[in-house]
Amino acid sequence: MYVENASAPARKPVTVPSLHAMKAEGRKIVMLTAYDASFATQVEQAGVDIALVGDSLGMVVQGHRSTLPVTLDQMVYHTAAVARGLSTTLLVTDVPFLADRDAAYALEAGARLVGEAGAAMLKIEGASPHILEAIHALTERVIPVCAHLGLTPQSVHKFGGFKIQGREHDAAERVYNEALAVQDAGADLLVLEGVPAALGERITKALKIPVIGIGAGPQCDGQVLVIYDMLGITPGKRPKFSKDFLAGRQSVSEAIAAYAADVRSGAFPAAEHSFN
Ligand SMILES: Nc1nc(=O)c2c([nH]1)NC[C@@H]1CN(c3ccc(C(=O)N[C@@H](CCC(=O)O)C(=O)O)cc3)CN21
Ligand SMILES: CC(C)C(=O)C(=O)O
Ligand SMILES: [Mg+2]
Asked: Which residues constitute the signal peptide according to the record (predicted)?
């Protein structure tokens, strides 16, 4: 275990079954990205439920304009670093662009990110037939999967930018049906990004698995943000759905604790962080 965490107060480990229990009991799930051991320790000590090694690291750590250049080797490197900073926080890692091109590649990613680096769950964007196959192949081999729908950043070229999805009736139906499909394929969790709040609420109510929103309104079972956005240090324009929790506070740990408290109370996201 990472030494700075050695004196952290004990809490029960967050697990896939405990996330399902949180949805059943109406307790909000708090998720935040981390890319290294020091931030992972901050996330752990603030009592965040899930740490996400997001492929957003391609943008906020590496300085690229999209998440597409991130490699599986890089995700393994960051996941192993984050794992050393955690003890009870559930560790989810993104499968990078096209590492899920078929079930065999997805299993290779699973072997490396779970077996080698220490992730507990893989997050995969989309619901096309080959992605549903990959979700099925992984979950059949007891690697839990978090699906990711709506504004899936790896689809940036198809969408023509980081654009809110599911605004028109047909597009909303498509995202809704994809959510049912990834659940049927075996996903244990869904990240729903950049969709109108009403669609976020409808999908959250329809699914048995917990739905974590980012720009998907306040009715989701939990929320996730990119940690540099909620610390106000992202260069340039932050997404509208994010909020600077360090503003007016004294430390990173206070900011993360405030984020966790606001997600749990329902104070975040407010109307200004949601789309209609
Ligand atoms: N710093 C950072 N934060 C993120 O949330 C994030 C990343 N990077 N990188 C990977 C993806 C890209 N994401 C993004 C990036 C930009 C917008 C954005 O600017 N959206 C517009 C909405 C445009 C519309 O209305 O269609 C916005 O105003 O928020 C959204 C998601 C989410 N992820
Ligand atoms: C924004 C979250 C959901 C993500 O996928 C990432 O950080 O890469
Ligand atoms: Mg991602």
From this structure: none
Write out pLDDT tens, residues 34-72: 999 999 999 999 999 999 999 999 999 999 999 999 999
Residue 274 parent element (H or E):
none
Q: Are 119 and 86 in contact (CB under 8 A)?
A: no
Domain ranges of the chain: 3-273
Domain 3-273 grouped into CATH 3.40.50.2000: no
Mutate to test the pocket of ligand 1, among 152, 156, 226, 274 (most ligand atoms within 8 A of CB): 226
Asked if residue 58 lies in contact with residue 64, where contact means CB atoms within 8 angstroms, the answer is: yes
Question: ipTM strictly over 0.95?
Answer: yes
The tens digit of pLDDT for each residue in 95-106 reads 999 988 899 999
At 272, list the tokens: 């200004």
